[in-house]
Amino acid sequence: MQPKTLALIDDDADYSEFLTQFLQEQGIAVSRFDDSNALLAASEAFSYDFYLVDLMLPGVNGVELIKILRRRTDAGVVVVSGRLGPEVFREVITAGADMYLVKPVQFEQVALAIAAVQRRVAKPSPADAVWKLDRVSGELLVPDGTRIQLSEADRQLLECFAQAGGEPVTREALLNRLGREVVEGDADDGLSATIYRLRRRIERATPTLVPLQSKSRVGYVFRAPLQLI
């Protein structure tokens, strides 16, 4: 199984050209970017089915790029890089990559890695994949069975999302729920940091994709069923 569209982010022109040709022969529509900032500036940056990422890139480095992608998409991400070492592997997997291949690597191996990851990410979520917020224990129950102990701020935010029923919640509503003053025009209100800590708490506990996303110019939305119990 191969994705329909793929973004290749690598500044090695010869490697990218030949790999692109090979993947296109497999029926994949490939878009090449030799600079991570060029990808992020593209209107379709987060709409690709798959991403192949180098680590040594002009613009945002590969690890930071993976983190940005993971905030916006659950598409497959494979790193193909010449950097070696267990600390590098740990860094890219922690950032959200699905697989790590070390250059030099055969194009057939890259295609196999893409297919293997795509089989996982293309699986539909089960209809009963419901997240639950236990208000008594103060825990979040992930569909995979993981239980995550939450802070008071985490609980307040998740209650707000549960009550919204999948609709976006404004920054003002979330700040009010946290008991914080809403100051007009103040972008540095600490909410982004609070949301980030909640996401990281969940990501450290489970490989399940966190369905908490920002909603441009509005606030945030929890894009999965979330029940209060």
TrEMBL record:
<feature type="domain" description="Response regulatory">
    <location>
        <begin position="5"/>
        <end position="118"/>
    </location>
</feature>
<keyword id="KW-0902">Two-component regulatory system</keyword>
<dbReference type="Pfam" id="PF00486">
    <property type="entry name" value="Trans_reg_C"/>
</dbReference>
<keyword id="KW-0597">Phosphoprotein</keyword>
<dbReference type="InterPro" id="IPR039420">
    <property type="entry name" value="WalR-like"/>
</dbReference>
<feature type="domain" description="OmpR/PhoB-type">
    <location>
        <begin position="119"/>
        <end position="224"/>
    </location>
</feature>
<dbReference type="InterPro" id="IPR036388">
    <property type="entry name" value="WH-like_DNA-bd_sf"/>
</dbReference>
<dbReference type="InterPro" id="IPR001867">
    <property type="entry name" value="OmpR/PhoB-type_DNA-bd"/>
</dbReference>
<dbReference type="InterPro" id="IPR011006">
    <property type="entry name" value="CheY-like_superfamily"/>
</dbReference>
<dbReference type="Pfam" id="PF00072">
    <property type="entry name" value="Response_reg"/>
</dbReference>
<keyword id="KW-0804">Transcription</keyword>
<feature type="modified residue" description="4-aspartylphosphate">
    <location>
        <position position="54"/>
    </location>
</feature>
<keyword id="KW-0238">DNA-binding</keyword>
<dbReference type="InterPro" id="IPR001789">
    <property type="entry name" value="Sig_transdc_resp-reg_receiver"/>
</dbReference>
<dbReference type="InterPro" id="IPR016032">
    <property type="entry name" value="Sig_transdc_resp-reg_C-effctor"/>
</dbReference>
<protein>
    <submittedName>
        <fullName>Response regulator transcription factor</fullName>
    </submittedName>
</protein>
<feature type="DNA-binding region" description="OmpR/PhoB-type">
    <location>
        <begin position="119"/>
        <end position="224"/>
    </location>
</feature>
<keyword id="KW-0805">Transcription regulation</keyword>
